[in-house]
Amino acid sequence: MGADLVTLVLPTNVQWWAGWAPLRAAPNLLWGDESNSSFNYLGLLILVLAVVGLLVGVRRGLHVVVQVAAVGLVALVFSLGPSLKINEIRGPLPSPVTYKSYLMEPDAAVIELPTTWLYENAPGFDMMRTPYRWVNVTRFGVLLLAATGARWLWRRSDRPTSRVAVVAVCALAVLEVAPNVPARLEKYTASGATIESFTSDVVDPLGRVVPPGTRVVFAPASTGRNDFLAAFVASTLNLSAYNAAGDKVVRTAEQGWPDPVRRLLVDGGDFSDAALDVLREDLVDAVVIPLFDLRRSVAVWPPSQEQAHRRQVALEDVLADERLDVTMEGHIAVVVLNVDRRGSPKPDPDP
């Protein structure tokens, strides 16, 4: 996900004053998942000071200033990803939302950039999921140039009033990029409450059923198998789990999954048979069925009925299988082998 150029020069709802701005970027409408658009604003006053600093550096032959500007410019190009976007509106996301849902089709861009070859072929670049983070290098360069510009203005100021004006400009430049602290606190407080609710509804009940050190697999996996909440639950309860979180981590973990685990998490098919295979082969001690999405429920809790539907189908499958024992605890079900019927064939469904 690359940066949209408009987010560099227009504030978003992250800045405290964006609500009064005549123009502002809307990260929820642009291509990407909002993280690539919300925090890119460089600040207009800082950019003005940076231009002053660059001009001073060029005029005085300060090579380090030119080098900083060049590095920042290269990083800016890299941050755009393989295509140029200028206020490119994404539109509503299709359901279910996956990582690919956030990616813009090449023909929708203003132009395709020469860096496309790098992102498709160069080692490291071809694995880069979030090139917009190169903006941080650009931001650092801009701040160094702005500091150079502010220092030059200060040294040229020979009167107290002039120096007060320079200090005021610098203070306004900092204030311009300051976050909306009350809104951030409100959001983080709500996130904390969500974590507490999730812990009470899921983590604590699961901890009463499975002891620390238990080997588990959370299934069905989330869309794209980005099972963030599985990682949270497993680490909190000191469980060992096959699930992983984060795109690159998931791809790496998948390479080491035994075939029965892959059939359970990737291939689909008969859920109870796949669960039985991982249990019989002693790959796990229990299969944990979350009645929520291990990815989407990070942002929304309690889960919606839509999130629970796919997991409910899996639950009904194992409940109908006499070879498995199921323990229900609120939003989760823990599946283990029925020791009395572990060698029995799966019963036929009712005609």
Helicity, as a percent range: 40-55%
Structural class, from secondary structure content? alpha/beta
Order of neighbouring strands in the sheet with most strands: 4-3-5-7-6
Detail the poorly predicted runs.
Answer: none
In total, the number of domains comes to 2
Largest sheet, described in full?
Answer: 5 strands, mixed
Strand content is 5-15%
Number of helices: 12
Question: Would you kindly provide a written description of the structure presented here, covering whatever features stand out?
Answer:
This protein has twelve helices and seven strands. It has 351 residues and is an alpha/beta fold. The protein has two domains: 6-179, no CATH class; 185-337, no CATH class. Strands 4-3-5-7-6 form a five-stranded mixed beta sheet. Strands 1-2 form a two-stranded antiparallel sheet. α8 links the parallel β3 and β4 (240-241). The two termini are 50 Å apart. The mean pLDDT is 86.
Present the secondary structure layout.
Elements lengths: L5 H4 L34 H17 L2 H17 L3 E2 L26 E2 L3 H6 L13 H22 L3 H17 L4 H27 L7 E4 L9 H10 L2 E2 L5 H9 L3 H9 L3 H10 L5 E5 L14 H15 L4 E6 L2 E6 L14
Helix pairs in contact: 2-3, 2-5, 3-5, 10-11
